[in-house]
């Protein structure tokens, strides 16, 4: 669908051609005007894809109307209507970009042919423009990405092609010396690419327009490899006031995230030294791991040593293992963690956060591995969870992580001990059921399962809500009922088989439990059996 403007000062021609166009192109939007001035006013408000206009008209003729048309990016086609007497006007119209002209009186077939050619030409141009716009959009999107990749490879020291080096030299031509500033967010997940680019734009705009502290030649970009970082190549000497203002501005953009600014040393050949400067700026950011009260850190004032692995020694492991075994609770575990960490940060220079985190991971993995009561699958799962830890943004985060993992191990051990004890009580009951006819005592059974008798007595009662002697008596009496029903042996013989050496005592216990003597119970049980047979 497209818009058509029909211009003619003769009412009969205007009405007749309007009806023809509405019949030929019912889906198109059709507007009419009686002269060039009226048509020009319409064109200033709306774009028409096809203009069909008479040449000779009062007030403003067709040629003057076309000359005054406002410029538009969208394509359009113009068809002139003219008589034989105005053929020279038609020739001039072609010079104004007219698609074609139609002689009056109008031949419908010829008009249709011209209209179809105009529509085809218009459609082809619209397709070409659409394709050009797509290509321009792709180019506009690709060029920044390409340049960002070049800058990212540059600061990371990755090798570049000759073409990329030429592009890089063009980007950095205005800056020979200066600092490299890193703005880094510390949070659990990477920023989305569009968000990082948006932040880069806002930070750059603020530095140049609002703060006025970024000089000509300096520039800002968001490297590809880490969307939590914005890099500023700073030509002049940054002052603390500017750096602190940047930190406040960026923190206000995302108040829920911690942001740090790390400033490298100054270089007089920044093109060659960028990878080193980038590493210095990142190292400066790491200072915030220990000094959380600030947001701006300069590499030259650093307090951390070069990266070096920290060995896990037996003292660290012993402190944490003792805390686990003594079940000291959350506060006790946190204190134990603080003690072992404190041994390694007792004096400056401090270890690199990544080295400290790696040491803690290895230490926790060793403790989890040594907890044999947990079983191999549980230990393997815990070690995997510990090993997947992201380096916390600060020392308190590392301590908290370690204490939480120790808490997980403590809880797992408690559950394992509970399960172990449940298994032990089942083993105890099975032992009693197998040896009830022997001279069993609480002390003898406790010794079999390596329990302290006092602890075993309390443990047995807590599990079964009955003490040991009562349980043993119940087992023996239930066996006695079965023996009395099934055998003709004398009562004293049954009592001896059950572990009762005094038949009178057996009789008293049996009657107390069932209200009958053993002989009375046997007699009643057999009569009932006969009655049912």
Keywords:
single chain; 533 residues; alpha/beta; Rossmann fold; Alpha-Beta Plaits; 4 domains; five-stranded parallel beta sheet; five-stranded mixed beta sheet; 20 helices; 10 strands; 60% helix; 10% strand
Q: Architecture of the largest domain, according to CATH?
A: 2-Layer Sandwich
The number of distinct structural domains comes to 4
What does the radius of gyration come to? Answer: 47 Å
CATH superfamily of the largest domain: Reverse transcriptase/Diguanylate cyclase domain
How far apart are the termini? 101 Å
- Can you count the beta strands? 10
For the largest beta-sheet, the strand count, sense and barrel status come to: 5 strands, parallel
CATH class of the largest domain, anyone?
A: Alpha Beta
* Major sheet: arrangement of strands: 2-1-3-4-5
Report the helical percentage: 55-70%
Low-pLDDT segments: none
**pLDDT averaged over residues:** 82
Domain HTH araC/xylS-type: 426-524
Pfam families: HTH_18 (PF12833), Response_reg (PF00072)
GO molecular function: DNA-binding transcription factor activity; sequence-specific DNA binding
Keywords: DNA-binding, Phosphoprotein, Transcription, Transcription regulation
